[in-house]
Amino acid sequence: MAEFRPGGVILAAGESRRMGCPKPFLEFRGESFVARMTGGMKSIGAEPVVVVANPIHRELYEPLALRAEVVWNEKPELGMLVSLCLGLRALPSECTHVVFSPVDVPNLQSATWQAIADSVRSNPERKLVPEFHGKTGHPVVVPRWTMEELLTAGDDCSPRDIVLAPRGLLRVAVDDPGILVDVDVPSDFQRLHDIPPGTD
Predict the structure, then answer these.
(1) Which of 38, 77, 79, 137 has the fewest beta carbons under 10 Å from its own?
(2) CATH number attached to the domain at 6-193
(3) What is the pLDDT of residue 198?
(4) pLDDT at 191 over 60
(5) In terms of DSSP bridges, do strands 127-132 and 169-173 run parallel, antiparallel, or are they unpaired?
(6) Residue 166 pLDDT more than 50?
(7) Cβ-based burial of 60 (10 A; exposed 0-12, middle 13-18, buried ≥19)
């Protein structure tokens, strides 16, 4: 089986204006969003995990005992690709893949993480994107060649353009609507808490 040594990148540099408070520190089932995403990435062997954060939230990160490194995006207004590239540059060259996701996808099932990791090990040169009922979501895992494409992409490009391009793309069907659920506004957060207990 091919080597799978992923690093992780959590995209958390937004100002959370629509939410009204910093999303990385919202709690779901006893953990902050950023801690939950870190734990999910660690569960499939991601090392290190890098959080790309907004410096306006610096004081909120300092007391956290995160199992992750934090890098600061001084220009978050330039978009997600800039944040992702900051995270990619912080990963060691030994990483064969990167798993990445926005921070506000807090309800991923453990089976989803495992399905993605198993699929990468069987298809190490493919870009892995989870899919639920025909819709793609997060987290995404891409190999080294895609990391290089992201790092050299133009300013008018988005990560989605590269990840969902047909070359090397593998959609992994998962029974997990959580891959589609991002939390942008307070009503999204309320619906998240309406999920019955016991859902992984």
Answers:
(1) 77
(2) 3.90.550.10
(3) 44
(4) yes
(5) parallel
(6) yes
(7) middle
Count of Cβ atoms closer than 10 Å to residue 104 Cβ = 24
Q: How many residues are listed for the chain in this entry?
A: 200
Over range 138-163, report the average pLDDT.
94
Question: Per the structure block, which two tokens stand in for 73?
Answer: 């995006």
Nearest to 83 by CA among 14, 15, 152: 14
- 69 bridge partner residues: 50
- pLDDT at site 154: 85
Strands 140-143 and 97-102: antiparallel
Looking at residue 190, what is its pLDDT?
A: 84
Domain boundaries, the chain: 6-193
The conformation of residue 48, written as its DSSP 8-state character, comes to: S
Average pLDDT over residues 179-190: 85
Phi-psi region of 155 (alpha: psi -120 to 50; beta: other; left: phi over 0): alpha
**Can you give the pLDDT at residue 1?**
55
Output helix, strand, coil percentages for the chain, rounded to the nearest 5: 35, 20, 40
